[in-house]
Amino acid sequence: MTVSRVLRNRGDVSAATRERVLAAAKHLGYVPNKIAGALASSRVNLVAVVIPSLSNLVFPEVINGISSVLEDTELQPVLGVTHYRPEQEEKVLYEMLSWRPSGVIIAGLERSEASRAMLRNSGIPVVEIMDVDGEAVDSVVGISHKRAGRMMAQAIIDSGYRRIGFLGSKMPLDHRARKRLEGFTDALDAAGMSLADQEFYEGGSGFGKGREMTQAILERTPDLDFLYYSNDLNGAGGMLYCLEKGIDIPGELGMAGFNRIDLLDGLPMQLATMDSCRREIGEAAARIIAERAGADNATGGEQVVLMPTLTLGDTLQRN
User: Fold this and answer.
1) 58 and 108 in contact (C-beta within 8 Å)?
2) Among 304, 308, 298, which Cα is nearest to 272's?
3) Which of 127, 222, 262, 300 is deepest in the core (most CB within 10 A)?
4) 41-74: pLDDT as tens digits
């Protein structure tokens, strides 16, 4: 009974006895059967973390934020990847919820009705992250991407740029990039302006793809004076292309991205961008799960809205 209490972290056991039991378990290589324990408790100490991509540099920082909070608890994060596909998200949720986790942290607000039904009926804390522009199943932590798009558009307009192009990848599956574009074009409309051109790519992001899209849009519309990219990777590739072509940045052509990834620090110029509060989002989501997982009367429905920071860098001309 004493060993059981120690391994389940239950009951009153002295520190000395606890250390002896844990040392013996470690020596024997013993791992408790948490699934068997879940039959009695109706859950295991796992938190399902569902993200769209592992190759996107945005999500590792979110995961680091989640891990930094959960490492001080009994909860452990387990990853599922959807590749931005609703049918894959349904499959991932079906499998992960069958384990009876203690909570779910899942990227985005747009999902199929089947996925929403599984989350609503799970009976555990659910935190949707990265985005607050929409209806949440339970709790939500993120930024307003529509507001972020409006903020960037206003900074570009205030700097005197008028012929603006937009370049985006994973469109239209990346709902957060789509919302930034909506906010961006709303701000342009309010100023009596519109996008002069746009270049979309359905695949992933990267320096190479940013170069290709930049070349294509400038060859098609050479009088553009600003390029707004859906993310920093594409923006960085576009910037390197323009520097190789001898284009004056930001005098002849300004540019900006989104996410404020650390990779930008190694480039010859600092790309204008906006911090998406990635680590803070992960930390706040994990705190909600940790606080509610062991509470019998947790109400849920928390909404945490963070404010991104605009960095002008070297590529957004200052008037």
Assistant:
1) no
2) 308
3) 127
4) 567 999 999 999 888 788 999 999 999 999 999 9
> Which alpha helices (DSSP H) does the chain contain, by range?
2-7, 15-28, 34-41, 58-70, 86-97, 113-120, 145-158, 175-190, 207-220, 232-244, 278-293
From residue 153, give the alpha-carbon distance in Å to each of 35, 131, 199: 51, 19, 17
CB 241 within 8 A of CB 219: no
Distance CA 4, CA 9 (A): 8
pLDDT band at 275 (very low <50, low <70, confident <90, very high): very high
Q: In what helix (H) or strand (E) does residue 169 lie, and over which residues does it extend?
A: strand 164-169
- The mean pLDDT value for 73-100 works out to 94
The pair of structure tokens assigned to 232 is: 């920093």
Vertex 198: Cα angle to 62 and 145 (nearest 5): 30
Q: Please tell me the least confidently modeled range out of 1-15, 54-68, 131-145, 235-249.
A: 1-15
Give burial (CB, 10 Å; 0-12/13-18/19+) of 202.
exposed
Cβ distance 260 to 232 under 8 Å? yes
Peptide bond into 60 cis (omega under 30): no
Closest-CA residue to 129 (of 254, 296, 284, 314): 284
Query: Within 13 Å and on the Cβ side, how many CA atoms surround 7?
Result: 15
pTM for this model (two decimals): 0.84
| DSSP codes of every residue in 240-269 | HHHHHTT--TTTT-EEE-SB--GGGGGSSS
Q: What is the dihedral of CA 83, 88, 91, 92, to 10 degrees?
A: 10
Instruction: Determine the pLDDT at residue 18.
Output: 85
